[in-house]
Specification:
With 469 residues, this protein is mainly alpha-helical. The protein contains 22 helices and eight strands. It has helices at residues 17-30, 34-41, 46-54, 58-66, 70-79, 82-91, 94-103, 106-115, 118-127, 130-140, 147-150, 164-174, 199-204, 211-214, 228-238, 258-276, 292-319, 321-326, 334-358, 366-396, 399-429, 439-464; strands spanning 3-5, 8-10, 157-158, 183-187, 193-198, 222-223, 242-246, 252-257.
Length: 469
């Protein structure tokens, strides 16, 4: 168990800090021990405070939040989940909410406004100070999920004529009001981005050195219209702590920091996983808080599409009813063939979608990728023939079933691997989400094609072996 000793939280039993704090926090609040609450929360990191408060009953969340010191409350608020933030907006007094929103960093404020009702956003915007209102309106004006919407305008910019000593003074004065001090940007009189240097470069420079002489002029940047996934790739590729954002006139307007990019990566990964499971995406992290009707609605859309698509499989089987009535044992191998085809297609689509996400697939190219997966599918089919064909031959008491299963298995695995690679690549070329062409869709497509190939092959072989239908 965790316990409070002075201002130290002691953990035991493998519990996380937030879990221990949440348990003790709820007990203290129910006992109206508000002094104990303040003592408990004082040494706890803001992110752990936010998690602990987020697990409390709604009636206690606002009370616990009010007991935080003002400066810490602002930090904690930015770490809270969106639904908890909304709940606090509704429960706190208007003045308290405005004070919180005013002190938030611009990018976090915009993310909050995206979640709040439009009427509340309009009211808060009007009540913000002119400077914060202008910045917030600017960020809200950019397209969703772009660098412009993701960036913060709190950064330190220097001029080439500044000395290193002057620049250090500027950093000291503005450090409290900026998102990060580790990356410093150099602009000209028109705010065009001309260079960049790290805090380390600045500290190591001679105090009399000009910034223009120690900065790096080749600056990697993104534009306000750059998609947030591309921003994440840039930061990952160059190991940046932040990347500068410029407008169409190449003027520096903001920066995107690595902590925001981590949120983007998590958000995009969640969406891809939902798409891979044929679940309609909602607010990425609210699935387990949603009511059952919402859960069912998100699933039923894609399931309905898949049910309709699987109806074609039933039609194919019905059209070949004559061959099945003549050789009933053929039906026993339908699940094996379509299951194998679905699994091979899902494997191929998974590796291709992942390759598109990480851009590793670019070195190989789309056509070579499809050919590579087709060959892999054929090899998998040949390997499985060694086990499946002798069994089918024995079970069918003759060559008809064994040959039908063998030929179909090879064709189905090759086709499934090809489709699993080609369909995500096609969607990517059409500027659609490749994750939509994931396991359920590939499985459904290969089911229809696999059953048709199998039963049509059996029909041909029956005629060839002199057993006309």
């Amino acid at each position: 168990m965790g316990s409070i000793s002075g201002s130290t939280i002691v953990l035991g039993g493998g519990l996380q800090v937030a879990e221990v704090v949440a348990r003790q926090l709820e007990a203290l609040l129910k006992a109206s021990n508000y002094g104990g609450v303040k003592l408990l929360l004082e040494p706890v990191q803001p992110v752990d405070c936010a998690e602990a408060i987020g697990t409390l009953p709604r009636t206690l969340q606002a009370l616990a939040f009010r007991l935080l010191p003002k400066d810490k409350a602002i930090e904690v608020y930015e770490y809270l989940d969106g639904d908890v933030q909304q709940s606090l907006v509704e429960r706190l007094r208007s003045g308290e909410v405005l004070e919180l929103v005013e002190e938030m960093s611009p990018d976090d404020r915009v993310r909050l406004f995206d979640e709040l009702p439009a009427k509340v956003v309009r009211r808060l915007l009007v009540e913000l100070s002119p400077a914060e209102r202008r910045v917030t309106a600017q960020l809200l004006g950019y397209e969703a999920e772009t660098a412009g919407r993701l960036m913060t305008t709190e950064f330190i910019d220097l001029k080439e004529f500044h000395s290193a000593a002057q620049a250090l003074d500027i950093v000291r004065r503005r450090a409290r009001d900026t998102e990060t001090v580790y990356s410093l940007y150099v602009t000209d009189a028109s705010r065009h981005l001309t260079g960049i240097l790290s805090l380390r470069d600045l500290v190591m420079a001679d105090p009399e050195d000009r910034i223009g002489d120690v900065m790096t002029r080749e600056v990697v940047n993104v534009t306000t219209a750059t998609d947030q996934e591309e921003v994440a790739r840039v930061i990952q590729r160059y190991d940046f702590l932040a990347v500068p954002v410029v407008d169409r006139e190449e003027r520096l307007v903001g920066i995107v920091t690595v902590d925001d990019v981590i949120d983007v990566i998590q958000q995009e990964a969640t969406r891809d996983l939902y798409a891979a499971g044929a679940v309609q995406a909602g607010d990425e992290d609210d699935y387990f808080r949603s009511n059952l009707f919402t859960v069912a609605r998100r699933r039923v859309v894609w399931l309905s599409v898949l049910v309709v698509a699987n109806g074609f499989t039933s039609e194919v089987i019905a059209l070949h009813g004559e061959v099945l009535s003549q050789v009933v044992v053929l039906a026993a191998f339908i699940p094996l063939l379509i299951g194998t085809g679905g699994n091979v297609g899902a494997q191929s689509s998974t590796v291709v979608i992942r390759g598109l996400s990480t851009q590793r697939i670019q070195a190989l190219g789309p056509w070579r990728t499809i050919v590579r997966e087709a060959v892999a599918g054929a090899l998998l089919g040949l390997l499985m023939l060694v086990v499946v064909v002798p069994w089918a031959w024995w079970r069918g008491e003759g060559p008809l079933v064994g040959l039908s299963v063998g030929i179909s298995l090879l064709a189905i695995t090759t086709l499934a691997a090809t489709a699993g690679a080609a369909l995500p690549l096609l969607f990517d070329r059409l500027k659609l989400d490749p994750a939509l062409m994931s396991a359920p869709f590939i499985t459904t497509a290969t089911d229809v094609a696999g059953v048709f190939i199998y039963l049509q092959t059996a029909t041909w072989l029956l005629n060839w072996l002199g057993m006309p239908l």
